Amino acid sequence: MRTRHSSKTRSTGVPTADPGCSVYSMSRRIPTVRHGAGFWIVAVTFLLVMAYSTVPTPLYPLYQQRDGFPAFVITMIFAAYAVGVIVSLYLAGHVSDWLGRRRVLVVAVLISALSAVLFLLFPEVPGLIVARLINGASIGMLTATATAHLGELRQAARPNENTVVAASVSGAANLGGLSLGPLVGGIFAEFLPDPLVLPHLVFLLVLIVAAVALMLVPETVDVPDERRPYHPQKLSVPPGAKRPFVIAAFGAFSGFAVFGLFTSLAPTFLATTFEAGDHLLAGATSFAVFAAAAAGQILLTPIAVHRQLTVAIVACASGLLLIALGAVLPQIVLFIGGGVVAGLGVGLLFKGAISTAASLADPKRKGETLALMFLVAYAGLAIPVLIVGAALAFEPATGVLLVFVALVLAATVTAGTLMRRRARASIRP
């Protein structure tokens, strides 16, 4: 397809954007930075938007205390976020391929800023649900686009560098942001005034600045002269590889259930089971779980995949058992420590699931296969915690948690064992 560029080319070597786009029309008058600097602007923006998506985690008990709603409402608010991510991934996760990376990133960041406005203007339950839904939509647009843009910017800046650098920075921004958000939210809730207002106001300003900074970043996609007809993201199971894909997807689903627990109901369990209502502690707990997942993915990269999955199985099993033991005794140190160990295992399990999907996929349909894997994972983020939240209305928190742990332990260990068996078989001569 023929592409159209403006009459001038910037010093970066990237064609100027389509003048028909309002965002591009503004950015055309702003000199772009070099690809290397643009890489770090996108990375920091990725980190900040992901962080804001988890800032509300330690704030949920404050909303609950103010309005007196049950724990199930917290899971509904959180599930709205996951639904937003899933729908956005399906409808808009791929549009940057022909609309341009920069344009979609700017829109995604502004949508996240819109969710902050809704948190400020409509802080009652219906407003919280809509705000989280919109925030999830921004994440669905952002993740795939930012990951692709980072890889392309780094390739342009350092063409001879191993692609693992861009992938590592992308992964660190993604999981690092998710881990940083609860910690920041906990600091606001524990030490600063107006914790249901100030965090959203601060991030609103930060996100607007980030959107402006993105306009300085070079575009890495040629925008077609004629718009492609829109279609939702295609999803596909690799032909002839349904069983290993389903096993990997099962692992991603069950692993993300652990993340869902610690980003929605962990503060509730800390307050009810352990009588620990410290908001900073709630934020730090979620931070530690995600940080362990990110650290495991990065630090164990040199190890063979089947050995990584061995660590994942052991970490998931021992971590979930510690969570259960901590709830029964009750011992908060065991509960939090178990979450950290389980987080390490889930990070490796999810990395193995993505690697499995990528290795099974038809090269021409890899994006479709990976999109389906991400959708299954985010379903795991929402569905189990909704069930847990509903059960809390009828059963004691400890009993509900023990049933959850038992089911997730069985699922993660089974999926991890089957994935490990396939990984070992693939390296045999």
Automatic annotation (TrEMBL):
Domain of life: Bacteria
Topology in membrane: Multi-pass membrane protein
Pfam families registered for this protein in UniProt: MFS_1
Tagged with keyword Cell membrane: yes
PROSITE patterns, sorted: MFS
Keyword terms of this UniProt record: Cell membrane, Membrane, Transmembrane, Transmembrane helix, Transport
Gene Ontology molecular functions: transmembrane transporter activity
An annotated GO cellular component: plasma membrane
Domain Major facilitator superfamily (MFS) profile: 37-423
Membrane spanning residue stretches: 37-57, 69-92, 104-123, 129-151, 163-189, 201-224, 245-267, 279-300, 309-326, 332-350, 370-394, 400-419
InterPro entries: MFS, MFS_dom, MFS_trans_sf, MFS_Transporters
Listed SUPFAM superfamilies: MFS general substrate transporter
Subcellular location: Cell membrane
Protein known as: Predicted arabinose efflux permease, MFS family
Organism of this sequence: Agreia pratensis
